Amino acid sequence: MSKHSSGPHRDQHRDPHFPAVHLRPPRHWVNDPNGLAFHDGHYHVYFQYNPHSARHDAMHWGHFRSRDLLRWELLPPALAPTPGGEDAEGVWSGNAVSHGGRLTAFYSAKRPDRWYQPVAAATSEDGGRTFTKRPGLLIPEPPEGLTLFRDPYVWREEDRWRMLVGAGLADGRGAAVHYASAGPEDLEHWEYRGVFLARAPQSLPGGGDTEEGWECAQYAPAGDGRGTLVISAWDPEEGARCAVAWPGREEGGAFAAGEPQRLDHGPDFYAPALLPAPDGRTLLWAWIWEARDEERVGAPSAWTDEAGWAGMLSLPRELSLGADGRVRQRPARELTALRGPRRISAAGQGPAALGRIAPAADLEVTLSGDAGMRLAGSADGREYLELRRDPDSGEVVADRDRASLDPRAKGGAWRLPAGDGDGATARLRILLDHSVAEIFTEDGRALTLRCYPVGGAAWSAHATGGAAWAVDAWDLDPPPVADLRPSPEIPAPRADTHRPRPATGRAGEPHSAAAPGRAPAAGEQP
Fold first, then answer.
1. pLDDT digits (tens, 9 = 90+) for 324-346
2. Tens of pLDDT, residues 216-244
3. Cα–chain-centroid distance for residue 513?
4. Where do the record's region annotations for Disordered lie (predicted)?
5. What's the CA gap between 93 and 152, in Å, rounded?
6. Which tens digits make up the pLDDT trace of 247-257?
7. Cα gap 417→204, rounded to integer Å
8. How far apart are alpha carbons 278 and 44 in whole angstroms?
9. Looking at residue 314, what DSSP letter applies?
10. How far is it, in rounded angstroms, from Cα 188 to Cα 183?
11. pTM of the full structure
């Protein structure tokens, strides 16, 4: 068996938009994370994967695993469609649980002659590397009165197993429907318990709504009957829209929900999936899709066909529910270990050139008043991602209208709540990785967006506005990824990452960045 470890490759020419830190294979299509579980000493991150092309088709379960969330292994696809079988058109989304020395996967079985996706199951006896599919279907038919039924999520609470399945009701409400197993050791027999939560489309802060269909419904218990329901809002005309969280409390087997909260305030984050970690944390990964020239999410794209890859998994996040009913997120604490050299450490007021940063970087930024920051991707400064604080609302505006000189790239601006107006400050952590930025506020909100700089220069940071600011920036060292598949491919080319020279910033601190670059996360069989 071949074994390949990917790491920094600064001397190779590669796709400048390919991530160095976010997980994905080097080629083809990736979408929802699936089957997140801690089993046999490893964190397992399965994901929707087309091993044949960069189009949304022929879904398999790809597979990464790690002992520490820092060093990863890419294994062969763990689940594949069975020709002529119940999942002939794809092994679609679901989850997995560790029990009795086995890893049991629950997934949506897609076939062209059904509008719904019944629940199927498979078990692994070899640490999650391969699975044996259970004969037949676990839940073959949806309950009456549904127009959408897919994406099982199973979890154990006290002495019972429970399952949610994403749904849409015939009356136009999105829903999560609820099942319970027959006993504490039984993952084979399930009884329908009714609707866990259903809501008509409800407006969300910042625009959009909770839609008529819910995909990837998942539940994170918080103790004392409290918990968070996470769903992905799906529109029957437009498809995937956004991720939503409902805080609330269980009452008689149903969920009494508070007001819905946008789980991520950006345009490119969907299908979050949960992993109950052995240390008590709830970890979360999501699908970060492209913002190229596709007509809508999942549609064919000439740019994507040319690039040969689409989609990535978010960095792991920690999800929690505060006593105030706010759902909070922050980057998983392990990610701090990926910080390399500090390239910027500066504070000031008014406009300033801060120096170069790596295309994969970890930034801590404080903005007051109307202060902002531009991350420029071209030497002449015409191409930049802009973050600016609105002093009236306290929101941070993330604007990518000028983030790419390629006219095919999508633009737009989004608002991230980060304070209460003038007199307050916005404290941000920004995880930048070539064509993606995940932005977090101090109080647990997040915004994710894609951008595609083509200017060919190293990134550079610039303070804007007239108010006070502070910036610290570190390189992000790419995590090692060992390819344990039989025939890993040679990584695809990436454009020059332009190692910058050290510079002196206005505050007298050294400001520079060594672009890490690296081979893509792991190889791909042609």
1. 999 999 999 999 999 999 999 99
2. 999 999 998 999 999 999 999 999 999 99
3. 26
4. 1-26, 480-526
5. 7
6. 999 998 899 99
7. 13
8. 13
9. P
10. 10
11. 0.91
